[in-house]
Amino acid sequence: MPIKSGSTIRSLLAAVVAVSCVLLNATSVHAQTTAAPTASTASATIAPAADASAPVAAPAQVAPAPAAASAAKSEEKAENPYGLGALWKTSDYITKVVLILLIIMSVGSWYITIVKLLEQRKMGKQADAAAKNFWSAGSVAQGAAALEEGSPFRFIADAANNAVKKHSGLVGHVPMNDWVSMNIQRAVDRVNSSAQGGLAFLATVGSISPFVGLFGTVWGILSALTAIGLSGQPSIDKVAGPVGEALIMTAIGLAVAVPAVLAYNWLVRRNKAVMDNVRAFGADLHAVVLGSIKA
User: Fold this and answer.
1) pTM of this prediction?
2) Torsion of CA 204, 209, 215, 221, to 10 degrees
3) What is the pLDDT of residue 248?
4) Which of 4, 42, 97, 216 is the most exposed place for a label (fewest CB within 10 A)?
5) DSSP state at residue 100
6) What is the DSSP letter of 83?
């Protein structure tokens, strides 16, 4: 019995030791599993600290952002959906016809303005030449020959000279004074008519181009209302395009009308000064021709 009891005790001790080893192993595994979240939490806690110091070096990497933003803005401006390019691409045929008419009127008014300005300047130089060379000649024919071809003053002098030569037949019954006066006046009227050529176009453009642009405006608003009616919702994307076209057409109409009106008034005033020289030349020529005939 004492021997059996000792072996039993040793067996119990061995079992206790085995159970203790198992418990120790379980405890160490639990400690490791508990330490893992703690480490991850610690790393997560340390990470913000590292992130807190990160902005110090960040500007070197974020520096190109303004350039990229400006490039994006410039690209958006280049692809403006409400500009002239978009107006031509997205507009209907009526809007395009109105736009073409406004462009034609604008180009025509600028062309006439430049041409008439050059013609009036040339007539001013021809008036100076007539005052210098014509009146010092020995006769009307010699004075006319001293003037350049195409000069309105030479045209009037030739008309007066031909009136004297052709005063025969039925026109011979007309007094010489009246006959010469009639021919000089007709020549002056023809010069005046030529000097005023193109001014009517400027007056027409200045008068109707705002209404042509207004027609484009009304048509654009009508398109906007149609888009709202079809969509059923007055959203800005349905309205912005047609309304933008309407505003552009109004601006173009005014841009065509204002220069045309200013050019018309300016050229009429200059034309009056030029024609005063022509009429004065005709009156003096009439007196010279009648004086030469009586002599």
Assistant:
1) 0.65
2) -170
3) 83
4) 4
5) H
6) S
Residue 60 has pLDDT above 50, yes or no: no
Q: Is the dihedral of CA 40, 41, 44, 50 positive or negative?
A: negative
Is 170 strand, coil or helix?
helix
Which of 167 and 273 is assigned the larger pLDDT?
273
pLDDT tens, residue by residue, 77-122: 545 555 566 566 666 788 788 888 999 999 999 999 999 999 999 9
CA–CA dist 245, 192 (Å, integer): 43
Alpha helices for the chain (secondary structure H) = 2-53, 59-62, 65-78, 84-90, 93-133, 140-145, 152-165, 176-195, 199-231, 236-294
Could you tell me which residues come within 8 angstroms of residue 94 by beta carbon, excluding any fewer than 6 positions away? Answer: 219
Select from 156, 162, 158 the least CA-distant residue to 195. 156
Q: How long, in residues, is the chain?
A: 295
Report DSSP letters for 215-248, one per residue.
HHHHHHHHHHHHHHHHHSS--HHHHHHHHHHHHH
pLDDT of 67? 54
